[in-house]
Amino acid sequence: MRLSPDEIIFWQYGLFKLNATIVYTWGLMFVLAVGARLITRNFSTGLKRSRWQNLVEIVVTGIETQIEEVGLSQPRKYLGFLGTLFLFVAAASLSTVIPGYEPPTGSLSTTVALALCVFVAVPFFGIEEKGVGNYLKSYMEPTFIMLPFNLISEISRTLALAVRLFGNMMSGAMIIAILLSITPFIFPIVMTLLGLLTGMVQAYIFSILAAVYIAAATRVRKSRPEPEAQNIEA
Amino acid sequence: MLIDWFTVGAQTLNFIILVWLMKRFLYQPILHALDAREKRIATELANAEAKQSEAQKERDEFQQKNKELDQQRAALLRQATDEAQAERQRLFDEARQAADALGAKRQETLKTDAHNQNQAIGLRAQQEVFAIARKVLADLAATSLEERMGEVFIRRLQEMKGETKAGLAEALKTKSDPALVRSAFDLPAEQRAAIQNALNETFSAEIRVRFETDPELISGIELTTNGLKVAWSIVDYLASLEQSVGEILQEKDRPAVKAAPQAEETQPEPENQ
User: Fold this and answer.
1) Closest to A57 (Cβ–Cβ): which among B12, B15, B30?
2) For chain A, what are the domain ranges?
3) What does residue B209 show for φ and ψ, rounded to 5 degrees?
C-alpha cells in the first residue's frame, strides 16, 4: 500500500530523484503561475474588469483581510508567504478531482517542507519586527524557566502543522482509494466532495496557524501567546 | 520512511520559488491595480467634489447676477414709467392749453360777432322805431316825434325831485359855462324855447343853455353839466330789445358754444344819473 506520492519515482540519479511529489508540485506551480500571469496580464485599473480579475481580486483581498483579522497590522508584508501557503494547499486539494492526480500535500515530505518554511519564517519576521534581542527574549517569558517549554512548543507545533496536513490529505486520498476498490460508483464521489471540503479547511487552518504564529512572534506588546492557536488546534 | 529529505529540500525550494512567482505574477499586479483603482476613485471623488463646489459657486454667482439684473430692470422700468407719466402729463397740459386758447378765441369771436350784430340791430331798431313813432304820432296826434320828445324831456325835468334836482340845480347855478343840451336831431326853435323855459322854471333861475346836435346820440335829448346828466332816450327800450334779441341768439348758439353768450346778459344802465 502506497502512502505517499514520494514512492512513485520517475527518474533517479544517485541522491537526485524525480518523484511524483516534485513533478506534481511543478505542475501545480506551473498552472498557478501561468494562470496568475494570464489573469493579471490584461489587468485593468479602471472600474470595468473581467470576471477572472474579479475572482482573483476577491481571493487576494479575502486573504489580506484574514491576515489582518489575525492581528497582523501590515497584511501586505505577509501576503506573499501566507497567501501562497493557502493557495498552494488549496490548489493541491482542488486538484484531487483530476483522476490519477495525487496531491503533493499528501506527502509528508511536502508538509514537512511547508512546516519548516513556517518554522523559519516565524523567527525571520519576528526578528525583522522586534530585533534579535527582543525576539530571543520572548522565549524567556514569562520567566526564563519557560525557555525549554517555549522551544519544545516551537518544534512541536511545527511538527503538528506538518503531520496534521499530511494526515488529512493522505487519509482523504487513502479513503477514496479504499472505497474505489469496494464500492466503485457512488461513495468515492461523495468522499471526494468531502475531501474537497477537508482540503479547503486544511488550507485555511494551515495558513491561519502560520499567520497566528507570525503574529505572536511579531507582537511587541507582552501578552500570553497563542490562545487562538490553541483553540484552533483543538 | 515517510519523509524523504531530498524531497523535503526540493519542496522547500519549490515553495520558495512559488512564493516568488506568486508575488511577481499575482499579488503585486493585483495590489497595484487595487491601489490604482482606489487612487483613481479618490481622485474622481475629489474632482467631483471640486466640480460640485465650483458649480455651487457658479450657481451662487449666477443667482447674484440674476438678482442684480432684476433690480436693474425694475429700476429702468420704474424710470421709464415715470418719464412716460411726465410726458403724458406734459402733452395733456399742452393739449388743454391749446384747447383753452382755441375756446377763448372762439368765445371772443362770438362775442365780437354778437356785439356787432347787436349794434346793427340797435341802429336798425332805432331807425325803425323812429319811423314807426313818427308815423304813429303824425297819424294819431298830428305832432312830430321831435316835438313829443321835447315834451317828454321837459316833463321829466319838471318831475325831478329831491337830491337829484338839488344836485343838478347846484351844478347848473355854480357852473360858469352854459349847460349842454344835446339831441340826435336839430331841435326846432319853439322846442328850444320850451326847454329853456322849463329849465328856468324848474330851477327858478336863468339857466344858460347851449344846444348841440349829435347824430350818434341815440334818438333822445340830454342835458349835461358839470358831470351830471338828465336825459331821455330810447336807449332803454333799445337795451331791452337788445336783451331779448341776445337771448334768442344765445338760445341758438348754445349747442355750439356754451359759455359764449354770458357777456350779452349785462344789463344796460339807465342813463338818467
Assistant:
1) B30
2) 5-233
3) -130, 140
Q: Which sign, positive or negative, has the C-alpha torsion B192, B197, B203, B207?
A: positive
Q: Which range among A50-54, B165-169, B249-253 has the greatest average pLDDT?
A: A50-54
Closest CA relative to residue A204, chosen from A74, A49, A47, A85: A85
A87-119 pLDDT, tens digit per residue, is 999 999 999 888 888 889 989 999 999 999 999
SS3 string of B12-59? Answer: HHHHHHHHHHHHHHHHHHHHHHHHHHHHHHHHHHHHHHHHHHHHHHHH
* Closest CA–CA distance from residue A73 to any residue of chain B (Å): 16
List CB contacts of B147: < 8 A, sequence separation 6 or more: B188, B191
Amino acid letter for position A25: T
Q: Give the minimum alpha-carbon distance from B43 to chain A in angstroms, rounded to a whole number.
A: 12
DSSP A170-194: HHHHHHHHHHHHH--SHHHHHHHHH
Pairing of strands B179-183, B209-213: parallel
pLDDT at B175 over 80: no
Nearest residue on chain A to B5, alpha-carbon basis:
A109
| The pLDDT value given to residue B262 | 46
Cβ of A15 and B2 within 8 Å?
Answer: no
β-pair type (B220-225, B209-213): unpaired
- Work out the minimum CA distance from A193 to partner chain B, whole angstroms: 26
Residue B145 has pLDDT above 80, yes or no: no
What ipTM goes with this model?
0.88
The two beta strands, A9-13 and B179-183, are: unpaired
> Would you tell me how many other CB atoms lie within 10 Å of the CB of residue B58?
10
Q: Is the pLDDT score of A224 beyond 60? A: no
Q: Which residue of B has its CA nearest to A12?
A: B6
Q: Is A127 exposed, middle or buried (0-12, 13-18, 19+ CB in 10 A)?
A: middle
Q: Which domains does chain B have, with CATH numbers?
A: 144-233 (3.30.360)
**pLDDT tens-digit series, residues B96-138:** 999 999 999 999 999 999 889 888 887 787 778 777 877 777 7
